[in-house]
Hints:
- The protein is of the alpha+beta class.
- Helices cover 18% and strands 30% of the residues.
Amino acid sequence: xxxxxxxxxxxxxxxxxxxxxxxxxxxxxxxxxxxxxxxxxxxxxxxxxxxxxxxxxxxxxxxxxxxxxxxxxxxxxxxxxxxxxxxxxxxxxxxxxxxxxxxxxxxxxxxxxxxxxxxxxxxxxxxxxxxxxxxxxxxxxxxxxxxxxxxxxxxxxxxxxxxxxxxxxxxxxxxxxxxxxxxxxxxxxxxxxxxxxxxxxxxxxxxxxxxxxxxxxxxxxxxxxxxxxxxxxxxxxxxxxxxxxxxxxxxxxxxx
Length: 256
């Protein structure tokens, strides 16, 4: 095998696989997880290549692709670093092949085991972004988040996409929603979804000190649930544009 551009390993048979995607497969194999089908591995490899070509792969701390036909353990791997921040499945959230995880609305969720205050590398106080896709949007669903105390300036977003009010409007109530929150090095934070593009002004003082959770919301270590939020992918890191992440994700997800 030959290491080529973008860290791609080319095989003698003409097929090629990115070195970082191969690391994901290798990790899963050593753990005994069921790998995605061969056809889906091709799509997932291309997703990594697309993010590298866009110059944003190295900006990620967390990148979870829950929509896969690998098993639910494979779905919990952090692609940005397979050896760190694997999601813990708390109280058995439901996994649906090629869709993702959803909470039962009362006790189940995913813990990324990522503490922004102590673990962040690319996600910085005034330069950051997060992106995710939800295939459903039930009332009062906590999609993800963590925060210190009740200080909105220390929140990493978004306990509830349906009812959380922002200057200029309310985030859409639609299912099949791709959402981004982007902070561009200042006190301005941009929120983008299928129908809304708005900014709010707040100046964070410190990153939250509690684990980031998905399909739930972590307030000073107390987990809040409500509604069976279903999440297909989640990414967190330095500021990455909505269009860049959406294009790469949509190319993958629409091919499943």
